[in-house]
Every structure is written in structure tokens, then in C-alpha cells.
Amino acid sequence: MKIPLTSVMVDDQDKALAFYTEKLGFVKKTDIPMGEHRWLTVVSAEEPDGTQLVLEPMSFEPARDYQKALHEAGIPLTAFQVDDVNREHGRLKGLGVEFSMEPTDMGPTRMAVLDDTCGNCIQIFQVG
């Protein structure tokens, strides 16, 4: 069993694509019109054939409620691994990204939580 796709719910696919590519450094992989929305995926620039992240449009009201509740509680929807949280935090802050949690040691990991401007808290972390 493999995980070829995973997704984040976004309130605006265009805004999400800009944030995930221009700020986080992902690369657009797939962009297929599907009526009102698109099948829109990004991948890690370091792993262009790796797991695709679907920028999933929120067209289901309970999903909006779930996303809002997670965001208000400061709970990350997902997490991305980085080599150096402090360096990535500094780079992203320089690009205007807002953080709800500054780099913090948590057991064997160091993590920070950012706002993706599309309704989600996203955790970045490093191991060791």
C-alpha cells in the first residue's frame, strides 16, 4: 500500500496555489479544470515524483466547520518535514508568513505552526 495523494482543504484554490508554490516552495504538478473547481496538486520540489498534495476546494459545509474549528483551536491540519525548522521559519517569516507557534522543541522533534492563508494551520517539523 502506498500514499500517492494527500490533501488539504482550501477556501480558495488560486490563493492556495500561490501560497504553496511561492511561499512553501512546492511545485504545481496537476491542474485539470473540473467545472467550478480544479483537480489541483503540488509536489515537493525535492521529490517531483513523490506524494502529491491535493489543494482540495471546500464545497461541503461540514468541511468548512471542521476546518474552522481546527484553525480556531490552533490544531494543524497536516505537517511537512523540513531539514531545519529555524532556517525554514526565518525564510518564511521573511516572506510574510504568519506563525501561531514559533520553533519549539517537543520531545525528539522541533516544530513550528504557520497559517497557510487558506484556512489552515500547518505544522513544519524536523526530527532530531
What structural class should be given to the helix and strand makeup? Answer: alpha/beta
* Helix-residue proportion: 25-40%
**Beta-strand content estimate:** 35-45%
Low-pLDDT residue spans: none
* Rg for CA atoms: 15 Å
Mean pLDDT: 96
Count the helices. How many?
3
Got a strand count? 8
The main sheet orders its strands as: 1-4-3-2
- The CA-CA distance between the termini, in Å, is 27 Å
Largest sheet: 4 strands, mixed
Give the overall form: globular
Order of helices and strands: EHEEEHEHEEE
What does this structure look like?
This protein has 128 residues and is α/β, with parallel strands linked by helices. It has helices at 13-23, 61-73, 85-94; strands at 5-10, 27-34, 37-43, 52-57, 78-81, 99-106, 109-115, 121-127. The protein has a four-stranded mixed sheet with strand order 1-4-3-2. Strands 5-8-7-6 form a four-stranded mixed sheet. The two termini are 27 Å apart. The mean pLDDT is 96.
